[in-house]
Structure formats: C-alpha cells, structure tokens
Amino acid sequence: MTWGTIATWRMAHDGVLKAAEMLKNKETAGDAVESLINVIEEYPYYKSVGYGGLPNEEGIVEMDAAFMDGDTLAQGAVGGIHNVLHAVSVARKLSNEHYNSFRVGEGATKYATINGFKMQNMLTDRAKKRWQKKLLELKDESVTPYDGHDTIGAITLSEAGSMAAATSTSGLFMKKAGRVGDSPLSGSGFYVDSEIGGAAATGLGEDIMKGCISYEIVRRMGEGETPQEACDHAVYPFVKKLKKRYGKAGEFSLVAMDKDGDWGVATNVEFTFSVATSTEDPQILIAHPSAN
Ligand code: SD4
Q: Is the ipTM above a cut-off of 0.95?
C-alpha cells in the first residue's frame, strides 16, 4: 500500500525522515504530520518556525499553526500564539473541538496553558540579536522589514489511505503585533481531503490569502488533475492575475500530494522541499520558478 509525505523547504527534511518512518510503521497520517512539524519547531536554528523563530517588531515570537484531518475535515488553528513550544500540537488538539477551534492571541495561549502544553520563552539569543540588528537597520527608511519568513507546511498519506495537513510558522519577521498570515487559514495555507489529496503553502501570506490557493489545488485534483497540473494551474495564472490587478505578487510556493502519493510543486521563487513515499527514498529537491 502507498504512503507518502511532502513538506516545504529543506528545513523539513529531518521531520520528513521521522514521518516516513512512522508511516512505514503504519502509524496514522495525523500523528506523522504532527511529529514531522514538532521536529522543526524544536530545532533552534530554523529562523522562521517554533523555537528560534524570528519575532515581531515588539520582539515577541508570535506563531501561527494549523492541523487538518483529511478524513473528517476537522481543523484546528492558532494565530499569534506565544510561549508555546509546539503550536501545531495545540492546533491539533483544537481540531477536536466543534466550537472555538481557531483561537488567537491570549485566548490561544491560555488554551495551551490550561491543556498542559509545554510553555517556554521562544526567543533565542540568536533571534534577539537579529531583531536588534534589524531595528537599527530600519532607521534607514529604504530598508524593508519583511525579509525573513518561511513556513513549514506538510501533507501526509498513511497506508490506510488517510491524509492530514499541518503548518507552523513565526510568520513575517518584524510583523506588526497581531498580524496573522495564511498558514493557519483553511484553504489558504493548507487544505486536505483524504478522498482527493492535500496542499500546503509558504510565501507571502497576505498574497496567498487572496487566492485561497491550497483549496484551489485540492479542488482541481478533485476534478481529475494530477498534483502537478493542479499546482501549475492554481498558482501561475493567479500570480499573473495579481500582478495585473493588484500591481504585484509576493512569494508563492505550494506543495501537493494526492491520495495515491503522487505529488506536485509550483513556485515563483527558487524553492526547496522534502518528499518521501513508499516508492521514493526521502529526498530534498529544488523547484525553480516556472516560465508560465
Ligand atoms: C506568512 N506564509 O505568515 C507565512 C510566511 C511564509 O515563506 O511562509 N513565508 O505569511
């Protein structure tokens, strides 16, 4: 039987190795995707996810995360949560709630505390130094604050045919307090349906949200497109449309996997990702912007 996982950026690879082992051992898609992301959240040297993530302009690491179960379509998400090591695990627990399943700010942090999640200061000395340096650089008004961001977004497919998706990010470096990106937003940062497939995004949240791109990819796969066709058709025309109608388009990088373990990628910047399936050894690959 087929299993598989795909996740954004080279940084995902250790998590993909872990998820691949779990999926091989017939563990669930939900457990595998959560573990994949937990590995990245714990590692202090990834500057855009979990511990060591870059802070907002006030020096606080505010994180966004989501979890979706492709069987039940249940979703949980957090926005602007702080002092929690595993934001994605909080999101997963929230996915069990029928009401109040997307919590932000203090409400999200309170939910994590009450439910016994590991709390810790997420600002490392390294991230604090980068923030202090950036504050100085920003005295020059021509410098843009928003140049450091990446999200871990992942899809898993279990041997039993279940799928799950999850994301976790500290969002845009130097973002305004309370700014929430696409990563916790259903259909924008992620979407998965075990009967079809899933997709996850990284890039400029403000622009990814304008096209609900992850849902669009899954919708297209549901109409019979391959993951690669769905990525190409959802991403490139939309980037073009944004440039025409909005005047510009930020970074878009999308990964997708269908219920058979086939996968696709589309990006408008050079983009690394990690993938493993029952027929392909785990590998880090690079995708280049298409001429489309
Ligand atoms: C956000 N999409 O908060 C995230 C950041 C990201 O590559 O993925 N950047 O907008």
A: yes
